[in-house]
Amino acid sequence: MPKVVVAMSGGVDSSVAAALLKQQGYGVIGMMLRLWSETGKEESNRCCTPDSMSLARRVAARLDIPFYVVDAKDLFYSTVVQFFLDGYAQGVTPNPCVVCNRKIKWDFLLKHALALGADFLATGHYARKQSTEDGKWQLLRSTDRAKDQSYVLHVLTQEKLAKALFPVGEYPKPEIRKLAGEFDLPTADRSDSQDLCFLAGEDYREFLRRIAPEIGHPGPILTKDGKPLGEHQGLAFYTIGQRKGLGIASSIPLYVLAKEVATNTLVVGSEVELGSCELIARDINWISGEAPAESFGAEVKTRYTARESKAMVKPVAGNRAEVRFDTLQRDITPGQAAVFYDGDLVLGGGTIV
Amino acid sequence: MVDQIYLDYAATTPVDPRVLNAMRPYFNETFGNPSSVHRYGQQAEAAVESARETVAEVLQCRPDEIVFTSCGSESDNLAIRGTALAMREKTGANRILTSKAEHHAVSKTAEDLERHYGFQVEWLETDENGRVSPETVEKVICKSTAVVSVMYANNEIGTINPVAEIAAICQAHSVPFHTDAVQAAAYLSVNVQVLGVDLMSLGAHKFYGPKGIGALFVRNGTPILPLQTGGGQEYGLRAGTQNVPYIAGLAEALRLTAGEREERIGSFRPLRDRIIGTVLEEIPDSRLTGHPVNRLPNHCSFAFKEMDGNLLLTLLDAAGFACSSGSACKTGNPEPSEVLSAIGLSPEWGLGSLRVTLGAGTTPDHIDAFLKALPGIVQQARNLTGVQQG
């Protein structure tokens, strides 16, 4: 009987994942990560509150599987939260979920799963995997396009993908809720999680102001040609393409065009000035394990919530890729991931420079 | 998945089938309320009083010195709160002497009395084995001391305290002395005349009785007030209809355990010493916690340097061994225990503790299997602890 560790969060997806694997005949072990919460905010952290922990425990008891909690507080802070703070300090908009998947879920937790004698690590991610004729693994979008989470999984390598299981990726979300009811899981009615777990439901700006007050230095707001328009509260509090909350009276709507860290300047302009047809991504992970030899056409997603757009992707030296879109992109944001798709297939991705 | 081997008898024990048989009639045959006038009530009362006599016989005290409670923690609470309040009323004494190596049922109760009831807690120093010396008590005990509480044997590190000597000192100063004997009762004599204690807590599930039932010995003449008021059950010290089947179960379990104690000690002690010897020999950066000799005969406890104890328990469980740890916590939020801090373990050792406790189901084969697996699993836990720290 193959053994699998299921990363459980107390939510409906990972609970159903565990139930499905148990039904499929796996020897299932439930595991939960104790992640970092700001002192005093443990109750509202998204995925490891006492409440979600006791829910996960009840699910495990219902399924009659062992359940363990593993401490990853310090590691989560030093890799994910620190990365998040550093990113904002450097003027980019970091994606901590990508780092969490690379360093916590698919490294730290995977090592624990293997140490427990498991053959696989399963999560409640909406994604799929399949094998090719030559024995390689492919990562695919979930059947439910609206729920697809393959974007944050583009960091998986062949070695890790071989050990990964995504049991809910084959089902539409409503079906998962229905299954939770059929399995009589206590999590069937839980709402979907959103936002970053460690923000505890708060706006990231509030979190930054409290945790890293040094990040928010006021500075000038200029137009592209250097005309001063006002003062910003700190570059970290603005995102490329942002329109609301600039606090400038203007005859035309103004958008954030760029954040210049060296001079602590926020550059704004009209909608027509916004956007670009190209981007460069670094630290590319190619799911197949090797970079394609030539340029190729793909659909590229530049944010978790963005729609993908057609583009030519050219792998270049130094583990980078140059992406040229067919149409102008309004919100290319350094720090976010650019992920390349061929239909349902995830080819790889990297961090937007 | 794997055959499980239970090595956590200090946490709890299975109910002995003979105990279960002794309990059975009192659920639906002799089911009366011991306070009732009719014969149903009389029969139930007879069962409770017969159980009280059995317990008194083992403790070598009078039956009316036994109060049945719901568990060891309740016994500790009744003893310390009840006596502290009664002593203050009687003599004005308002200090409580106890140590940080006590079970939380004692230490948290003392803290609570300090925070909400105006008592003052004096924390007794322990030595590196968690032992409270009689001299320490002698040094700080005085007229203003309301109650002294020092456990008989430590649940976490197995160390046995010189309870009789401490009791003698308390007696000389006319201060009531309580001992938590919950962990000790299965292996040490609980003869209160020899021990000289005024109050002693017991919990049945540590000696093959059911959970949810305990007893408190209260020497006649010891000042004590009830915490739970209502009917006059248990000499007015613990209101509420007695739990007849569980009281019968506690008495039978205690009777059996007292009779079989010597035999059990004889079979566990060599196994215990084999575990301790092998671990210290084969696992680098390991140490025994608690006293090497004056410790419970079924109890081994260790600290491993730079290792997450919680992780070790997880790996051991997955490999089929159910153990415990002083720092373990089911919520994955490890803190060194107060006991391990009290004996001076630094966090680099204190987070990596392991408790292995033997009991009726333990066989030499279990210990062979355990000792074969443990060094590799400790190594694995250490490797993963490294990963954790990034």
Structural notes for this entry:
The complex is a heterodimer of chains A (353) and B (390). The model of chain A has no long low-confidence stretch (mean pLDDT 92). Chain A has helices at residues 12-23, 50-63, 73-89, 96-115, 158-163, 173-182, 204-211, and strands spanning 3-7, 27-34, 67-71, 120-122, 127-131, 137-141, 164-165, 219-223, 228-232, 255-260, 265-269, 276-286, 296-301, 309-316, 320-329, 337-342, 345-352. In chain A, helix 1 (12-23) packs parallel to helix 2, helix 1 (12-23) crosses helix 6 and helix 3 (73-89) runs antiparallel to helix 4. In chain A, 25% of the residues lie in helices and 29% in strands. Chain A has 353 residues and is an alpha/beta fold. Chain A folds into 3 domains: 3-199, Rossmann fold (3-Layer(aba) Sandwich); 216-273, SH3 type barrels; 276-352, Translation factors (Elongation Factor Tu (Ef-tu), domain 3, Beta Barrel). Chain B folds into 2 domains: 5-12 and 261-388, Aspartate Aminotransferase, domain 1, CATH 3.90.1150; 17-257, Type I PLP-dependent aspartate aminotransferase-like (Major domain) (Aspartate Aminotransferase, domain 2, 3-Layer(aba) Sandwich). Helix content of chain B is 44%, strand content 13%. Chain B has helices at residues 17-23, 25-28, 39-59, 72-91, 104-117, 134-140, 163-172, 192-195, 244-282, 309-318, 338-342, 347-350, 364-388, and strands spanning 5-6, 66-69, 95-99, 120-124, 145-149, 177-180, 199-203, 214-218, 286-288, 299-304, 321-322, 353-357. In chain B, the strands form 3 sheets. Chain B has a 7-stranded mixed sheet, sandwiched between helices. The longest helix of chain B is centred in the C-terminal third of the chain and has 39 residues, at 244-282. The radius of gyration of chain B is 21 Å and the shape is globular. Chain B starts with a strand and ends with a helix. Chain A binds chain B through residues 3, 27, 29, 32-34, 50, 53, 57, 66, 68-75, 78-79, 107-108, 111-112, 115-117, and chain B through 1, 308, 310-311, 314-315, 317-319, 330-334, 380, 383-384, 387-390.
